[in-house]
Amino acid sequence: MQLLGIGSRIAHAEYGKGVVTNVTSKHYWVTFIENGLETIPIDSDFETIEIVEDEVDTISFSEVEQSLISILKRWSDTSQITPIADKWKSGNLVLQPGDSNLSSKELPITTFFHKIVMVRDRIRVMEQKINSSKNLDDQEKIDLQQYITRIYGSLTTFNVLFKNKSDQFIGERSK
Fold first, then answer.
1. Which residues 6+ apart lie within 8 Å of 15 measured at CB?
2. Kind and range of the H or E element at 27?
3. Who's near 154: CB < 8 A, 6+ residues apart?
4. What is the spatial distance between Cα 152 and Cα 114, in angstroms, rounded to a whole number?
5. Is the Cβ–Cβ distance between 32 and 38 less than 8 Å?
6. Could you state, in chain order, the average pLDDT of each consecutive group of 10 residues for the chain (175 residues)?
7. Left (φ > 0), alpha (ψ -120 to 50) or beta: where does 77 sit?
8. pTM as predicted
């Protein structure tokens, strides 16, 4: 039995098709298309689709993971990790209906905060796309930018959740 190198492609009866991303003395770490990362014994039953011989200059799973993280950060519509203010960590948001016959809804405040940050980041991406658009004239860009500024202003209520002032929403400033 030939030892597969990193980059070899296999088909596993249970997990489907995958690529070997790391090799230990007893296991292959395989990233499967539909099942993610799985560790399988070297002597397990699978079909070899393509063999890459074990070479000295192969990369480890850790290097693949760091490359993937870098690519996702570069092409994602989120720009950075935004921390929640310390006083809200481990807290809950409770929505209490006016009708006492209805039950309240409670969720971790970090879940709510994450949604607010996603809205902010997507508005920023939309703003960048408007400003760089070749299909809009200058007046249309100004008009749309004013709407975005008003959206930010509507969201300033949530600024209390942000740890850093630089991450907060800024709407129209009074003159």
1. 30, 32, 34, 35, 38, 40
2. strand 27-32
3. 171
4. 16
5. yes
6. 84 91 88 88 92 65 72 60 87 93 93 88 86 90 90 88 86 61
7. alpha
8. 0.50
